């Protein structure tokens, strides 16, 4: 494979894959997106939350107004016991809005992906290829080739694995690395571990109030309840009997059993799970994998999002971190391409850039992984210490204020933006952004 013009092959056409399409298109980098399903926006999954840093990236994509029009800003936060007694009423989301110019925004996952995909320029949409399940990768000093299960092949300069928690790209990359060096220290085939599982359901919003982000707490069980613009979502968390690895297939009887176990739990002062379940429009059940892979790249292959790190969803950090991965990676790719006289960096230079990408992301990811894991366990009273933190520490408004200031806002303020897409700053708050959106340069 001779080195032609630089081209990225993106494996996965979900929210991270679509984000990569925007970033690569805006960078002027050719690409192809391979999606195993027949559409990028099948109605799978429940809700996702976009934080203020991610909304800044949506602004750079030119779609901020579009995504805000279908989402709902979360403003109210309360915690309850299973019998509906109020534990605390929090101003965390208000503090986040004051600090960063906007609170988190809740979406139905399929709806957000549909808007993101449909607002892509036609030239970029033409580079999506559906019903393309990755089965093999070839990589050498000059390029890569991805082979799909229908026999089709796609050649390029790099492969970006945006194919989620059960990433085929990650598995193939691991096999290639160990084949090249059998004594190499590498991540196991299954790098993540699940301690909890999750049953979710979506339904028409049952109350007039939008923008509620509530939780219900109990020993080894908890609930998240979110109300959006038209819909609402409930998430039922339960600790597993033993930690597990790999994909677990749940049947309808498993879903029914968990729903029955939670039926009398309150999600607010008056509503119970049983009442919500009567109007459910969709459900799903999964284990909640947690972990950060040690190896994100090899040769011309690199991973982003859930393919290289996975958190529990209580803190809403998963997709937002995946988008930050892609922004950081594409900033680096563009710089390497522009620095190379041929416009096609060598594998050695790409290897160094991939390492720098991982290095720049790891500290923030470790902090968010810790925050997510601890929040899950505090809300599920995993140990006496977690129970004490929930009942007597986290209920303190003063402590919450310092948590937001010292940890959450500090992390959010350092999130990356595309350093090659100029514009005005769409979100301003009390905390300045470490990485401002590049200013427009007036033409003389």
From TrEMBL:
The keyword Membrane applies. Its main location: membrane. Its cofactor is FAD. Gene3D superfamilies: FAD/NAD(P)-binding domain. It is found in: Membrane. Keywords: FAD, Flavoprotein, Membrane, Monooxygenase, Oxidoreductase, Transmembrane, Transmembrane helix. Residues 7-338 form the FAD-binding domain. GO terms for cellular component: membrane. Belongs to the paxM FAD-dependent monooxygenase family. This is FAD binding domain-containing.
């Amino acid at each position: 494979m001779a080195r032609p013009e630089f081209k990225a092959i993106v494996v996965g056409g979900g929210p991270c894959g679509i984000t990569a399409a925007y970033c690569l298109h805006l960078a002027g980098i050719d690409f192809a997106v391979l999606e195993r399903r027949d559409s990028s926006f099948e109605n799978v999954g429940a809700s996702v939350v976009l934080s203020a840093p991610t909304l800044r990236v949506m602004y750079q994509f030119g779609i901020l107004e579009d995504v805000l029009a279908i989402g709902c800003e979360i403003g109210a936060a309360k915690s309850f016991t299973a019998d509906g007694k109020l534990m605390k009423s929090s101003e965390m989301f208000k503090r986040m809005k004051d600090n960063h110019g906007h609170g988190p925004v809740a979406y139905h996952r399929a709806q957000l992906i549909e808007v993101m995909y449909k607002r892509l320029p036609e030239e970029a949409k033409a580079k999506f290829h559906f019903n393309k399940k990755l089965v093999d990768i070839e990589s050498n000093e000059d390029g890569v080739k991805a082979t799909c299960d229908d026999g089709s092949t796609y050649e390029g300069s790099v492969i970006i694995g945006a194919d989620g928690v059960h990433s085929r790209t990650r598995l193939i990359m691991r096999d290639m690395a160990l084949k090249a060096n059998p004594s190499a220290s590498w991540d196991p085939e299954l790098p993540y571990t699940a301690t909890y599982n999750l049953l979710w359901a979506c339904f028409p919003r049952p109350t007039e109030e939008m923008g509620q982000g509530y939780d219900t707490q109990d020993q080894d069980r908890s609930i998240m309840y979110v109300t959006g613009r038209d819909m609402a979502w409930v998430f039922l968390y339960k600790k597993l009997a033993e930690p597990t690895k790999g994909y677990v297939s749940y049947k309808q009887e498993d879903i029914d059993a968990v729903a029955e176990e939670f039926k009398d739990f309150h999600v607010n002062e008056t509503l119970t799970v049983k009442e919500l379940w009567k109007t459910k429009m969709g459900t799903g059940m999964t284990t909640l994998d947690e972990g950060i892979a040690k190896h994100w790249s090899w040769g011309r292959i690199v991973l982003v999002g859930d393919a290289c790190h996975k958190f529990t969803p209580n803190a809403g950090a998963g997709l937002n971190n995946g988008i930050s991965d892609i922004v950081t990676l594409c900033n680096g790719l563009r710089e390497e391409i522009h620095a190379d006289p041929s416009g096609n960096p060598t594998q050695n230079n790409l290897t160094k850039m991939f390492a720098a990408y991982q290095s720049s992301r790891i500290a923030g990811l470790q902090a968010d992984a810790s925050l997510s894991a601890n929040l899950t366990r505090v809300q599920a009273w995993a140990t006496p210490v977690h129970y004490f933190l929930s009942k007597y520490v986290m209920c303190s408004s003063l402590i919450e204020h310092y948590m937001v200031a010292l940890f959450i806002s500090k992390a959010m303020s350092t999130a990356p933006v595309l350093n090659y897409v100029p514009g005005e700053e769409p979100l301003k708050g009390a905390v300045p952004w470490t990485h401002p959106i590049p200013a427009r340069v007036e033409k003389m």
